[in-house]
Amino acid sequence: MKEVIYLDNAATTQVLPEVLQEMLPYFTETFGNPSAVYTFASGAKGAVDKAREQVAKLIGAKTEEIYFTAGGSESDNWALKATAEAYKEKGRHIITTAIEHHAILHTCQWLEQQGFEVTYLPVDEKGVVSPQEIEKAIRPDTILISVMAANNEIGTIEPLKEIGVIAKEHGILFHTDAVQAFGHIPLDVEALNIDMLSASGHKIHGPKGVGILYIRKGVKIRSFVHGGAQERKRRAGTHNVPGIVGMGKAAELAGTHMQENNEKIVALRNHLIDRVLKEIPYTRLNGHEINRLPNNANFCFRFIEGESMLILLDQKGICGSSGSACTSGSLDPSHVLLAIGLPHEIAHGSLRLTLSEKNTLEEIDYTVDQLKAIIERLRGMSPLYEDFIKKQERE
After folding, report:
1. Is 319 an annotated catalytic residue?
2. Fewest CB within 10 angstroms: 29, 62, 168, 174, which?
């Protein structure tokens, strides 16, 4: 067994060797600034153009609709803040969901401080937002609907097609945070009527620190970073050429191998879920059973505190998460698990395991075996579990 079993691919992924090899020349050989006019810079400019094409192809966009950023959080901030600024004369109302990533939720909270109104729609027990509720929430002053493509914690895939139709019928811009879905499930911005889409390189075996915002041609949103004419005057700053190249290559590989990778990952994920639910009592699978990301398994174990479980898993060389990587230092229960109706005491015992095609059946079985022993150990120290068992025996 390997020293480290990595099952936190929703937090970040390993850069593929092919991606790294594509990036290396742009650190030391073709290192020119792609905005420069001399011939030496043309190699870097050509590489950025190629990456833009690779990303656009993966989501069915035009190359000129792809804008490179420093990551998913920047892209989310740009989509919301710049749209609000550009369309504030039309209206100041935004619709989103209660289970969005904090890059959306915190941005919406900031916009509320600037005088905008935000409707945070609830989701059902599977984590699915109702398109009908979205339509009911629309007002004459609604300027934007922002709903994630798939939830980063519980893996539930949202009904983007239905939402896109509603947004288009009402003449409202539709943004999706696709950071977890990009490169993992098919996405077509035209078929889904998406006006803006955020994605990040490091979730698909690309480098950290690079992302994209797709902006449909004709959408009039403002620049987010000022100070230069890069990205067709919409996002200033010298291009991160190696990062952009890496994201482009990772997007190309993700599209090429999506089906075969997902077949393997889904088989491993289903094996993991089946064993956990059958062999560890008082366990719940969070998220939609079918419409979920191929690599996501999220559980709640009753009478368990999630942080202790993660520490013990780490001691066995297993990397997992209790929720979003951005809140891993928080002791508060997941806002997503609370939004799907779980009480605090159950939400605290959550575990997110997210796979990649690099994982093996041996790793999954080892993980479940260790998890069973850890849960048994922690429950053995829980007075709540002891009281529960005594009550069950009396009944």
Report:
1. no
2. 29
